[in-house]
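Fold these two proteins, one after the other.
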Amino acid sequence: MKKNSLLFLAVLAFAFTYAQAQTAAPAAAAAASAPEPTLMSTITGNINLTSNYKFRGQDQGTLKGWSPAVQGGFDWTHNGFYLGNWDSNISFAGNIEMDLYGGYRGEIVKDLGYDVGILQYYYPKNGGQVNFNTTELYGLLSWQWLSLKYSTTISSDYFGIGQAQQVGATANGASLSSKGRNTGYLDLSANYPVVDKLVLNAHLGYTRFVSDLRNASYSSSCDSSTPCTHNVGVPDYTDWKIGLTYDLGSGFSVAGAVVGASKKSFYGDANSTRAIVTFSKSL
């Protein structure tokens, strides 16, 4: 394999780890529970300071254990309908992530809730050849402190991975057409009240890429007579979280968690297991 092909694989893996921008923090936090619909409009907000921002188990910062992020957003609700925004600093795509979402939540029977909606991951200062913007539809079922959520990509690509694969192929004199639509994410989460003001947080997630991204490859010449096949697909992976949240009162809370993901041999340090501390204030 030519040296520049090896370089491309390294760049692709690096770009991919950065392309994942933690639903547990933005929209999934808004959609993680399904309270009874409100009878009047309400607006709530939140602001967070975290030692490291992970999305679906992958670092969104500097690929180090200490990579602080300031985050926050707001939600408007009315009779079960909601609209919201959540933002964070990151270390790629112009350094800003904005999540815009809306949907409807309610109860099927007592303690059994549901939530359906649409979420746009938007990077307003993103430039270059790869567009990270991604749109997903999601559906959630919740029972007391347990929830199961599935998200599917409806935009043409999943955080620019298909475009990155195409750019690499073009740089090697080949062509490749891969799209990320229909990539799915399964999220099983539990927020169990252990004692007064203390909640146990646990999460298990699974990212399954559409076959276009998973099996992507292209051919180019290794020399004047020998063709080479370059496999640039991205493997499915699992992520997890275990931690505790303590209510400090007056809208303040502090959370500590251990978060990580599998396939570190492919994705590198972005999938490392991190100890993360987050301070939050509801508004």
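Now the second one:
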Amino acid sequence: MNAASGAVPFARHPAGRGVVWLKESWVMLSAARVPWLLLLLTYYLIQLLVSLIPIVGPLALMVFRPVFTVGFLAAAWNQERGGMPEIRHLFRGFGANLWALIPIGLFLVAGTALAVFATVAVDGGELFEGIATNRPLEDVLAGKDVEAAMLFASACAVPIALAAWFAPALVVFSGCGAAQALGTSLRAALVNWKPAMVYGLLLVFFGAVAPALAVKLIALALPLIAARVVVAVTVVPYMFLFIAAQAISDYVSYRDIFHADEGPAPPPEPETDSA
């Protein structure tokens, strides 16, 4: 559906769909681990190179984040239709809809900055000053009320994240402009707050709690050198796989909410001999 013809319809799902999004994403990842990991590593290499540019680099990464998100969406779309994720998919956002995607990135930059600036009311500006002056993390966390300020900033950033969640997919797949994509994404996420909350909690558990607990247990059970080796060969690969699954889940959740009547694409027809 082209967004110019009216509002983009979306479905309302029960809480359990949040589990399904990650489950289906893991199935897709399991069928193409190497291509997805190559795609992810290429993206991280680009991030590393761009981040070396002082001041402009980190800002550019955030502005162009929705553009690269389209690359992961394109890779998932292609895989669901019988193809495989390819490096070229990563740059798909630069070839079309670029000028609708960049405003979404600018929205992320402005929204994040406002969320951090709002913490001045909580800790008197300690967190904001620490980030602005690039102080070491341990020094920033030593400040009074900084942890409360971080929680407050996270809460302020929730609507920003929800608005940006489906926005790149809505631009590419539904023909929305940036403003309509952000507004539609926010409304769909709020309507689906139950599965979104389950999904978010699962991301926190599998992406932060579980690996942190694993690292802690390994450190307690083994000498320092052995622990580092075990972490390097278990937790680090796990994190790459988790991040890849999370990237795929952006497509899976979008498809489930905005194309619920279509379902996953059917597998390709098997080839038959014409003889």
